Amino acid sequence: MNDFPVYRVIPVLVYYGGDEVSDGYGWKAYACPFHGDRSASASVNTQDQLFNCHAGDCPKGNAVQIVMKQEGLTYGDAVIRTKQISGQVDQGPSPSQRGRGSGGSRFGGSRSGGRRWSRAGR
Ligand SMILES: [Zn+2]
Predict the structure, then answer these.
(1) Residue 37 to residue 58: CA distance in whole angstroms
(2) Looking at the predicted structure, is the pLDDT value of residue 89 above 80?
(3) What are the φ/ψ torsions at residue 28 (nearest 5 degrees)?
(4) Which architecture characterizes domain 9-86 according to CATH?
(5) Neighbour tally for 32: CB within 10 Å
(6) How many whole angstroms separate alpha carbon 64 and alpha carbon 69?
(7) Ligand 1 center from residue 58 Cα (angstroms)
(8) Burial label, 94 (beta-carbon count in 10 A; 0-12, 13-18, 19+)
(9) What average pLDDT does the chain have?
(10) 6, 25, 33, 83: which has the highest count of C-beta atoms within 10 A?
């Protein structure tokens, strides 16, 4: 079984400014998004989901390796990031509840039972 998840490399490259390429091709010339490539001096493999730049010290390898290098993350963090970028999120609830801070105003010290003795001036 394939217990090593393969993440699509194109969404990651697109995320960093690369071009969209259809899945299912072998190696294909690709303009590297990492060093401002104008002529396609990198290659991408949309079958094996790999990327390789022939110029410079650019991230290369699979999607996770690219994210790892580009973001300076550990492998585990890079996997999470790759999932976010490529949209390949595991099923399950994604707690994206934002701006749900605890309301600032607290009613404290209203201890006096609320009832007010109105002193009927005698
Ligand atoms: Zn490059």
Answers:
(1) 11
(2) no
(3) -150, 140
(4) Alpha-Beta Complex (3.90)
(5) 27
(6) 9
(7) 5
(8) exposed
(9) 81
(10) 33
Q: How many angstroms separate the alpha carbon of residue 32 from the centre of ligand 1?
A: 5
Q: Report d(CA 12, CA 16) in Å as an integer.
A: 6
- Whole-number Å distance, alpha carbon 117 to ligand 1 midpoint, is 80
Ligand 1 centroid to residue 82 C-alpha, Å: 19
Q: Structure tokens of 60?
A: 């290369």
pLDDT tens sequence across 40-53: 999 999 999 999 99
Strands 42-45 and 50-53: antiparallel
Q: Is the pLDDT score of 101 beyond 60?
A: no
Six token digits for residue 22: 């259809």
Report the alpha-carbon distance of residue 106 to residue 122 in Å, rounded.
Answer: 38
Place of tokens 């390789």: 52
Are 9 and 23 spatial neighbours (Cβ–Cβ below 8 Å)?
A: no
pLDDT at 113 exceeding the cut of 60: no
**Percentage above 90 pLDDT, the chain:** 56
